[in-house]
From TrEMBL:
Its EC number is 3.1.2.-. Belongs to the acyl-ACP thioesterase family. Keywords: Chloroplast, Fatty acid biosynthesis, Fatty acid metabolism, Hydrolase, Lipid biosynthesis, Lipid metabolism, Plastid, Transit peptide. Residues 101-233 form the Acyl-ACP thioesterase N-terminal hotdog domain. It holds the Pfam family Acyl-ACP_TE_C. GO terms for molecular function: acyl carrier activity; fatty acyl-[ACP] hydrolase activity. This is Acyl-[acyl-carrier-protein] hydrolase.
Length: 377
């Protein structure tokens, strides 16, 4: 997944023109799981998922709905939604809801958690990236690029993300399972919006929502391009007019630029490693999150949990670059939070900037919101 270059863009772009329809329906899940002695959900290390005892069969249809001949397990009880073809754990994920939504199951592993034994924001972002790429592959239109379609590959085009917003209600723990749904829609005439919903697989609780905007770049000239009509014809059958983050919850405000004078803390000398590169030979956008956190005060990292993150990508970064991470608090409203509301105000809010150390050009602007860990639901 690439980040956007700060270079000329031709054409009339309206990347904020995402459809404003109803938020995805959640409903209820019925799954079986074991209880640990301390009443916390734990899973068998041998039989993963909540469908203990299920047997896997190669089938073409389940409940009259075609599932592409994938290996599936019969799901106990009624499904969450009559239009959903989710029938249990599928190793590599599958298309559901009339092939508009891609769904994949993940188990939280030991190396994906932080000091508090819950998964990290970087892990969440990796799940978003993984499902986005697998969605393209499973749809049958994947080319030889990193998430590119066949028509994009023929034209040497790649996707670049311009903005992404992630809202987290709760971070899952080591050993728990989550279910990630992703889908796409048009964003204006020359952009694409991709959304995600992450649920706790055993309770059906929505724990994360995310939305993003994408445009196309020529991988050789590094210039942005209009979406060719041939690519639009590939994508349009998969567009679904649904939003994960409601309009009133969407972070559309401009992220202020930090300077040496306005930044409260700065961390310099951040150098990309070889393993930070993606297949398009620039830094994978998930890596930026770790660098952003380098300039966040340690007391905040210890006592608070990030509940929202908005990233605005402004240019590419390669292995030869050295970066600076800058952070400044923008809001402090402790004492005004309503612990019974999932939309309560943050205890802390920060503005961030990643920039090239040599010429001070911006790479990523970001805004984060944090809640005291004792206030977590």
């Amino acid at each position: 997944m690439a980040s956007i270059s700060n270079i000329g863009l031709h054409g009339n772009w309206n990347l904020s023109n995402a459809k404003k329809e109803n938020v995805i329906y959640t409903g209820n899940l019925r799954f079986n799981y074991f209880h640990h002695h301390n009443n916390k959900r734990r899973f068998s290390p041998v039989i993963t998922g909540c469908n203990h005892g299920s047997t896997y069969n190669k089938v073409d249809t389940i409940n009259g709905t075609k599932v592409n001949g994938l290996q599936v397990a019969e799901a106990p009880g009624k499904l969450r939604n009559e239009n959903t073809t989710d029938v249990g754990l599928v190793t590599n994920g599958k298309l559901v809801e009339g092939r508009f939504v891609f769904r994949q199951i993940f188990v939280i592993r030991s190396y994906e958690i932080g000091p508090d034994r819950t998964l990290t924001m970087e892990t969440l972002m990796n799940f978003l990236q993984e499902t986005a790429l697998n969605h393209v592959t499973s749809s049958g239109i994947g080319g030889d690029g990193f998430g590119a379609t066949r028509e994009m590959s023929l034209r040497k085009l790649i996707w670049v993300v311009t903005r992404i917003q992630v809202q987290v209600q709760r971070y899952n723990k080591w050993g728990e399972e989550i279910e990630v749904d992703t889908w796409v829609d048009a964003a204006g005439n020359n952009g694409m919006r991709r959304d995600w919903i992450i649920r706790d697989r055993c309770t059906g609780e929505i724990i994360t929502k995310a939305t993003s905007t994408w445009v196309i770049m020529n991988r050789e000239t590094r210039r942005l391009s209009k979406i060719p009509e041939e690519v639009k014809r590939e994508l349009s059958p998969f567009y679904i007019h649904r939003i994960a983050v409601a309009s009133e919850e969407r972070d559309c405000e401009k992220i202020d630029k930090l300077t040496d004078e306005t930044a409260e803390t700065t961390r310099s000398g951040l150098a990309p490693r070889w393993n930070d590169m993606d297949v398009n030979q620039h830094v994978n956008n998930v890596k930026y999150i770790g660098w952003i956190l380098e300039s966040v005060p340690m007391k905040v990292l210890e006592d608070y949990k990030m509940k929202s993150l908005t990233l605005e990508y402004r240019r590419e970064c390669t292995q030869s670059n050295t970066l600076e991470s800058m952070t400044c608090p923008t809001e402090r409203v402790i004492g005004e939070s309503d612990n019974n509301s999932s939309n309560r105000k943050p205890d802390l809010q920060y503005t961030h900037l990643l920039r090239l150390q040599d010429d001070k050009k911006e790479v990523v602007r970001a805004r984060s919101e944090w809640h005291l860990k004792q206030n977590q639901q």
